[in-house]
Design goal:
By secondary structure, this protein is an all-alpha fold. Helices cover 72% and strands 0% of the residues. It has helices spanning 3-11, 14-24, 28-49, 53-65, 72-78, 81-92, 96-107, 111-135, 153-171, 184-193.
């Protein structure tokens, strides 16, 4: 099971959807639609941000600050939306409003409801990625991307290969209107950062 599938499974469980619906005033179907559409976008943006040395270091720092251990539903219930809004701004940058508008149209939720839901989802996503990166098996061979010495051409080539292989497998499983992402590229980057 890919990282994206694992995250979707835990974040669209009945208890997680109930929690999100209570937070936002939406219903479970709308929450499921929102989370299913939003997670690939957020993971893709995180991966893009982590493709630079400073972005990778920033992500590693954020993961270190988000290591909650409760269930996903508990984390969603206790999530700090102000912190989540800051995380989203950092992840999405100038694309925040267009992403929010698109997710609002796709889920049937208002922009305020989408903002509230994503504000709760963002810290939980970082906690989940932190847990996943800590469980990632150590690689025996030299990684395709080594950011410890700065970024060079081989790092960029390795990253592009990881992105294209992840997209190739994911596109067969996902609807065409969804961003494709299986998470292996981000987990690969994260496991290499932990030395």
């Amino acid at each position: 099971m890919s990282l994206l599938e694992t995250l979707l499974q835990s974040m669209t469980s009945t208890s997680s959807l109930n929690t999100m619906s209570k937070r936002t005033g939406g219903n479970n179907d709308q929450m499921a639609a929102l989370i299913t559409a939003a997670l690939p976008i957020l993971l893709k943006a995180l991966t893009s941000n982590a493709s630079t040395q400073s972005g990778a270091a920033s992500l590693q720092e954020a993961l270190g600050q988000h290591q909650e251990t409760g269930s996903v539903a508990e984390q969603l219930e206790e999530a700090d939306e102000v912190d989540g809004a800051k995380i989203l701004q950092h992840i999405l940058g100038g694309n925040s409003s267009s992403v929010m508008n698109g997710l609002s149209r796709q889920s049937g939720l208002s922009n305020d409801q989408v903002g509230s839901a994503l504000g709760a989802l963002a810290p939980v996503l970082l906690s989940s990625l932190s847990a996943a990166s800590n469980q990632a098996p150590a690689r025996q061979r030299k990684p395709a991307i080594d950011l410890s010495d700065g970024i060079d051409a081989s790092d960029i080539m390795g990253f592009m290969q990881m992105m294209s292989s992840a997209q190739g497998g994911a596109q067969q499983r996902q609807p065409q209107n969804q961003a494709s992402f299986d998470g292996s590229d981000l987990l690969g980057l994260l496991s290499m950062l932990q030395k």
